[in-house]
Please model this.
Amino acid sequence: MFYNKRYLFVVVSYLMNFILCLLINKCFIFLEMGFNIILGSIIIYAIILTSCSVATLILLYLFKIFKWLFKLKKRKIEQKFLWNIFSIFVYLCIFIIFFKITEY
Amino acid sequence: MTLKKRVAIKVYDKNLKHSVIVTMCFVAIMGSIYFIRNLNYSKKYLLQKANEYYSKEEHFRAAKYFSKALNFNIADTEVYKKYGTSLLKLGNYSLAAKYFRLASSIDAYDDEAYCSLGDALYRKACENGDKQSFVEAIEYIERAVELNPDSEKLYLLGGLCCRGGGLYEKARTFYNKALSSDNFNKAGFYNLIGNTFDEEGNYKEAVIYYEKAVVSDNSFVTAFCSIGDMFLKMNDYESALKNYQKAIEVNEKFVPAYIKIANLYYDKNNFTKAIAVAFKVLKINPQDNSANYSLGMSYKQLGQDKESLEYLKKAAFYGNDKALKEIKRRNVL
Model:
């Protein structure tokens, strides 16, 4: 997603993450655990990006192992494909956190 | 303009188009989920959910629903009190106090609201060390006592608030009021008065009240130990020992009394007797970390380092910090 305009992806996903942090802050205000929204959202965004990058890399290596095990034809994995996987993971992460928060 | 350039301009960035559509669908799905989850959240439904979670003691969720319900401008004492209780359990004492205040402002004869408000202010004061909150808490508890003089909890809480704020005379007033009623355990309140004198440093007066506690209930072993502690503070070791032994006569499995005797013998450099008493404790409870520590230190004084280390390690294993420090000091870890 937004492969040709990756900066747009960062902006859009960060904005979604910021709204998520607003919801989280609203939830935890009872525990006097409200936090600085901007700093909190940056930290949470960094965690999401890191974990999604790791997940994408794991998937990539699993795919390579799978190809080697079953002796499949060597096909070069496109950068675009990897970026799409990564962006889907980021969206999925935000969705899961949002879903859990709305349960409360 | 050449044809190629025209085509180039006309070719849309398909990836951008698809990405925007997917993102908008994603945002729309999230928005609908949020909307559906918040749909039909009537006041009645919110209160029902809040009460459900409150009865299950899931205070975080209960607080969440109470706060949503309060957006409907409910002015109900019970709702304020339950919300306040949930906030108290979550540790948000300031907000809890606010809602208990609201509850008491609606019903000025509700002693429970004043008691809870006093409790919230007391916990807030303990957290911040704010003396003004202690004084405020005492005022509300006094009002609660006026409305319900038969509640033991109020006298205990009042005494606790006063002692927290250093107002020992006022604490004794609470306890004496409780004593004037025949409904409560007198020994307990005499013991508490003794504690206030102990905290003030007036050990002789403390002994008088601990003795009254013992006269009122001769199975009150803690009071015997407290009398012993007061004599120890007044450097009267014989009387202290006598009282610790009296505690053991009443309850021969009362470990704190044995520990105090062992410590007393240790302080008087009578390490053999200290070891003998500590072993008695281990017969009752082999995992008692104080007894193991006492043994470790006594053996150390007798020059028996191997046995000393063995018991210090046991004491440290069972959670004795002083034993751990002693072991580190010997650079064994």
